[in-house]
Design goal:
Number of strands: 30
Shape: elongated
Radius of gyration: 37 Å
Helix content: 40-55%
Strand content: 15-25%
Largest sheet: 9 strands, antiparallel
Mean pLDDT: 81
Length: 1023
């Protein structure tokens, strides 16, 4: 080939190109973003609306339902889900894959604008947001000290702005701490005495605390702008604000209210059981997680030098640590795999120089892959790096075939350049075709939809890039280096002669087995079929799973007390949890807990009745138990704590799946019926083996006092429903009337009644409601009261109410547990056809991914056959070669059964890879049989000679591929669990398939050759 001739004749040019690629590779690596998994671009939009003080049912009817109705007509909408809870509505719109989310967001905003006017008066304008599962905090930094108010000021004034200026940081949120607030505690008797209402106070303060422009006047040759500044300068100004009573008297705020300059807690955050302010850092969408983490850590060091001695910045959780450890583990496995592959080459080739020629192709191919990854916008993650690790053994296959042919010409007496040119040019077309069969199996993965495509397209691209790069190296760099380095070929020496004798024994043994197989052809085929059937029978014992996740050493503990529980009571529960956790100090590195945190304006607010723990464990090699084992142990320990529902779970990678492992979604019209069904389902699945920590969403209920105003009776007292409602709200909640500015800070000023006047049911019943004439009437006179339990959150799916029963699983695979749960649900009697259930969460994602990958596998097999048909210019020989694929099932299922690994998505990807790999050995064998027969050799002799001759290169390519994957298959290092099933699948599948290929394919060849001869004779007779 011309390329080969050019590379041999112009070695300097090849070297310069290689150096340029290395330089580009170094630049690419420095600029590639690093993450744990590829970013998943899901077309999801969110509409968040706050409706302060409204009950969940009211939010559902008045906010969520109208918004859902407006959005349902948008083209491309797949699912609309809503969550209605006290004071907030969250509507999630999931579009079909491939939808342009930018255009969809415009339609969502237009639909929301149309429904705005129909929302209740107290509801705020809806916010339309793009949902990005990757936009989760990557770090949490704790600020500890003795004065929590001081910490809050430091966090807001210095630390938050400084962190946000760091490269790659999108935003920094503050959790915990205290906000300064000014409360005007109203005196009811004084207000009654002066005839002052809360509305009058609000109008007086709002009108006084204002600034305005009053035009301009001339002063000499200049214009002076006139400005009236009525802003308050101090808290005393608020106390001395003048209010005009309805009778015309002038009084001050301090006459009817106690002015309190105080602080309001934003929940409680504890770091290692010490109260703290915690800052969570979000990276930009195109940011490098590791780089952002390094920038924040450097910023922490800079800030610590200027902070007071009693204030400490502490790293609470850093997700980049696991990413770094995972990437380092993969790199280490790549290095070991490369070393194993080179040792195999050295053993077979018996030449350091020949080994170096092939060994150079590995780093060049890897560096070239980095360049291609950079230009395609991919990131460095455990899947792309795992693809390189898996591809290392395959990278040298093309180079081995080329080098062996060059060496054979060299041993025949050809010169260095002639041997390099002829040897490489002769086999270049075959090598290209062989590499193409491996490449085409990845094409369907790029085009299938769903989470499988999102996650494994980068892996497919990585392996494809590495194989393309290794192919280019094989037909350019390898011939050039061979023409310079293979001046002397090492003779057999005693040091390595043992291996030649061993290889001769293997070859002779194989020849005997092959001869018997050709005599006992039916027996050979029967044994193969029996082995395949036996391996398929192992499938029920193997099970299925989603994506194996690494041991990140992070545990989440949820403490749910009954809704409405005070923060103080919740803290008492968390103190008991802390006592239990103290026994695990040797394995817990950092403990971070939040109680009652959340922004009241947020649609996803966490109330005071819940606490959330994040535990960062010490590295896996410093503890005897895995994270999963510790989760189960802690769950048993904390179950003894009364007064709260405590759930312990392992924190996963995030962004890979849509929720819990098992999610049973029950839909129907009546909430009461759904709650009853959810309880029945929960009870039923608790007995299923493997089900762990099942919970139901309807268990989250809140006590509610329903105030039913008698509107006709209220009207008789001169009161409207709106007046009654607003006065009740003010009587039991605070009302912000203005903002007071001091030293650049905006401080809320609230009207509030004393705690002892708004704490009991008696206070509610005797609340005095005042009409516009100043007459007061107790609320009990004009209203009835009903106490009830209502759902804290009302969930709807596609405009139908829904409750969810979720569960984790242990000691079994996800597929088996899900199947048993479905059998239990099928045996249950649902009230009517209106009530249905579906299985969601990881179980649903797994089934969808398997369906997509199954289609990809079928397409891959077809493409492999098509490539071989083009290569052989024949439809029959590729069909013979395809018989090497069924035998792969023996290795795949047998390997998964032996190692105890379920059939996961990563293992399925390994099966697809095998479709392109296993045929290469059969191609080499059948191709050489045809060559020998073309020389006039008898079929039997040709098969025997081809088997013995091609055994050596088949063993070389198979062993290099297998041994390069052994470190990954052993699961050594952090994050290796994800690639482990893929490596196991390829190793066992390729090993067993290679053995069957060497014996079965020659037998199949004889049958098809006989069939071909019969067809020829039939056509000859007709002619």
């Amino acid at each position: 080939m011309k390329i080969v001739n050019t590379s041999v004749k112009r070695p300097v040019g090849v070297i310069m190109i290689v150096l340029a690629i290395i330089a580009m590779g170094v630049i690419s690596v420095r600029n590639l973003a690093i993450d744990l998994f590829p970013e998943i671009d899901l077309p999801i939009a969110v509409v968040a609306t706050s409706y302060p003080d409204a009950a969940p049912a009211e939010v559902e009817n008045l906010v969520s339902a109208p918004v859902e109705g407006a959005l349902s007509s948008i083209e491309g909408v797949e699912t609309i889900q809503s969550q209605s809870q006290s004071g907030s509505s969250l509507v999630i719109i999931m579009f079909q894959n491939g939808t342009n989310l930018d255009n969809a967001l415009l339609e969502v905003r237009e639909s929301v604008d149309q429904v705005k006017s129909f929302l209740p008066e107290g509801a705020n304008d809806p916010s339309v947001l793009r949902f990005n599962p990757n936009q989760m905090p990557i770090m949490w930094v704790g600020l500890t000290g003795s004065d929590i108010a001081k910490l809050q000021n430091l966090a807001e004034d210095r630390i938050q702005p400084y962190f946000e200026r760091q490269g790659g940081v999108a935003s920094v949120n503050i959790e915990g701490g205290e906000d300064r607030i000014i409360d005007l505690e109203l005196d009811r008797s004084a207000m009654n005495q002066y005839g002052v209402s809360p509305q009058l106070i609000q109008q007086a303060l709002g009108g006084a605390n204002q600034s305005a422009s009053a035009g301009s006047i001339e002063k000499g040759d200049k214009d002076l702008q006139l400005r009236i500044d009525g802003s308050y300068d101090s808290v005393e100004d608020i106390s001395n604000s003048i209010i005009t009573t309805p009778q015309g008297a002038k009084i001050k705020v301090q006459d009817i209210a106690t002015v309190k300059d105080t602080f309001q807690k934003n929940g409680t955050s504890l770091v290692n059981n010490e109260e703290a302010v915690v800052l969570s850092i979000l990276k930009q969408s195109d940011g490098n997680t590791v780089e952002v983490s390094d920038n924040i850590i450097a910023a922490m060091d800079d800030l610590q030098e200027d902070l007071p001695s009693d204030v400490q910045l502490e790293l609470v959780v850093d997700t980049s640590q696991f990413i770094k450890q995972s990437i380092n583990s993969v790199i280490q496995n790549m290095i070991f795999g490369g070393i194993f592959a080179l040792l195999v080459l050295l053993l077979f080739l018996k030449s350091f120089r020949a080994t170096i020629v092939i060994g150079v192709s590995i780093p060049i191919a890897i560096i070239s892959t980095f360049v291609l990854l950079y230009f395609t916008g991919e990131t460095l993650n455990i899947l792309t790096m795992g693809g390189l690790a898996l591809g290392i053994g395959m990278m040298v296959d093309s180079s081995i075939v080329i080098l062996e042919n060059i060496v054979s010409y060299r041993q025949k007496g050809y010169s260095l350049k002639e041997a390099a040119t002829k040897g490489a040019s002769e086999l270049a077309p075959a090598v290209i075709a062989s590499t193409t069969t491996t490449l085409v199996v990845f094409l369907p993965i790029v085009f299938v939809e769903g989470i499988a495509s999102e996650l494994f397209t980068p892996l497919a691209l990585t392996i494809s890039f590495s194989l393309i790069a290794s192919l280019v190296v094989a037909v350019t760099l390898v011939p050039m280096l061979s023409s310079k380095l293979l001046s002397k070929m090492a003779e057999n020496s005693g040091r390595r002669y043992w291996f030649d004798r061993f290889l001769n024994r293997v070859t002779n043994g194989y020849a005997k087995i092959l001869a018997k197989a050709l005599k006992l052809r039916k027996t050979t085929i029967a044994v193969t079929i029996a082995a395949i059937i036996g391996s398929v029978c192992l499938v029920p014992f193997i099970g299925t799973a989603f994506i194996p996740e690494g041991d990140q050493g992070q545990i989440s503990i949820s403490v749910e007390t009954p809704t409405g529980t005070s923060e103080e009571k919740t803290l008492e529960i968390t103190d008991k949890v802390n006592e239990k956790l103290a026994e695990y100090d040797n394995v817990i590195d950092v403990s971070y807990v939040t109680v009652g945190s959340g922004d009241p304006s947020s649609a996803m607010m966490t109330g005071s009745s819940s606490g959330s723990y994040t535990l960062q464990l010490v590295p896996a090699d410093e503890r005897a138990k895995s994270t999963t084992e510790l989760v189960q142990e802690l769950d048993k320990e904390l179950a003894s704590i009364a007064g709260a529902e405590i759930t312990v779970s392992e924190m996963g990678s995030g962004g890979v799946s849509s929720g819990d492992p098992i999610q049973i979604q029950i839909s129907g019209p009546e909430l009461d019926v759904l709650e009853e069904l959810a309880d029945q389902v929960l009870t039923a699945i608790e007995d299923v083996d493997g089900v762990y920590n099942p919970t139901t969403s309807v268990s989250e209920t809140q006590p509610e006092m329903n105030i039913i105003v008698n509107r006709e009776l209220a009207a008789q007292y001169g009161l409207t429903y709106q007046e009654v409602m607003s006065q009740v709200q003010l009587g039991f909640t605070s009302q912000t009337v203005m903002q007071y500015r001091e030293a650049g800070d905006e401080i809320n000023v609230r009207l509030i009644y004393p705690e002892d006047e708004r704490s009991t049911i008696n206070d509610l019943e005797n609340l005095l409601i005042q009409n516009q004439q100043g007459t007061q009437v107790p609320l009990l006179t004009i209203a009835d009261f009903e106490q009830e339990q209502s759902a804290a959150t009302i969930t709807r799916n596609n405009q139908q109410r829904q409750v969810n029963v979720t569960s984790d699983y242990v000691n079994r695979d996800l597929g088996s547990v899900t199947e048993d749960i479905e059998n239990v649900l099928d045996s249950m009697q649902f009230p009517s056809d209106e009530y249905t259930y579906t299985i969601g969460g990881q179980a649903e994602d797994m089934m969808e991914a398997f369906a997509d990958l199954g289609l990809a596998l079928i397409l891959s097999i077809f493409l492999v056959y098509a490539v071989m048909a083009v290569q052989f210019e024949n439809f029959l020989y590729p069909l013979i070669i395809m018989f090497s694929m069924p035998a792969t099932a023996v290795g795949v299922f047998g390997g998964l059964f032996i190692t105890g690994q379920p059939l996961s998505i990563t293992a399925f990807i390994g099966v697809i890879m095998l479709a392109g790999i296993v045929v290469n050995n059969a191609i080499v064998l059948v191709d050489y049989i045809n060559i020998l027969r073309g020389r006039g050799i008898d079929r039997h002799e040709a098969i025997m000679e081809a088997g013995k001759t091609r055994l050596r290169p088949i063993l070389m390519t198979t062993l290099t591929t297998i041994l390069a994957m052994v470190p990954l298959a052993l699961g050594y290092g952090e994050g290796a669990e994800t690639q482990q099933p893929m490596a196991i699948t390829v190793i066992f599948g390729l090993s067993v398939s290679s053995l069957f290929t060497l014996v079965l394919i020659p037998v199949i060849y004889t049958y098809f050759d006989n069939l071909s001869e019969r067809i020829k004779r039939i056509f000859a007779k007709k002619a």
